[in-house]
Amino acid sequence: xxxxxxxxxxxxxxxxxxxxxxxxxxxxxxxxxxxxxxxxxxxxxxxxxxxxxxxxxxxxxxxxxxxxxxxxxxxxxxxxxxxxxxxxxxxxxxxxxxxxxxxxxxxxxxxxxxxxxxxxxxxxxxxxxxxxxxxxxxxxxxxxxxxxxxxxxxxxxxxxxxxxxxxxxxxxxxxxxxxxxxxxxxxxxxxxxx
Length: 194
Prior knowledge:
Largest sheet: 5 strands, parallel
Number of strands: 5
Number of helices: 8
Shape: globular
C-alpha cells in the first residue's frame, strides 16, 4: 500500500513546478526590450524560477550566423528563435525573447506553434516611439543610418509592423524599467504562467 505524501512535501513540489512560457518582447531598436527582459529575468531568478533570455544579438551571432536582413532571412531568424523558445518553455522555463521580429506574420507563426503544442505564449509590444528610440540609440544604429553607413533600419527605412492587439503594450518611454517589468510580471501571474 502506498503512503500519501505529507502536505508540506506536496506544497514544496508544487512551488518548484514551473509552468513555462515564451514572452516575446517586440519593438523598435532601442525601445527597451532587452532592458525590460533583464529586469524581469532578475526578479524571476530571485524567486527561484527557471528563466532564460534569448537575446537577438546573441542568437544572430550563434544560431543565425550567415543570415542577412532581407524579409526572408528575418523570418527564418524569428522562426529559429521561436523554435528554441517553445522547446525551452515546454520544459518549464520562462523564456524572455527581446527580439524585434518586425513582421506580424512571422510573430503569428511562432504564436501558432506555441498554441499547437499547448505552450504558453504572450506577445508584448514595447511601444517606444522612433524619435525616442533614435535619441537613446543604444547601439548607434540610428546615427549610422543618419550618416548613410547602414540602410534597412527597422522602423526607419525598413518596415516594422507593430502588433495590432498584443497581450500587453508597454509605453517604455512613459514609465521606468521597474514599472514595465512589474506590468509584465502581473500579466504572467494573471495568465497563470508563473
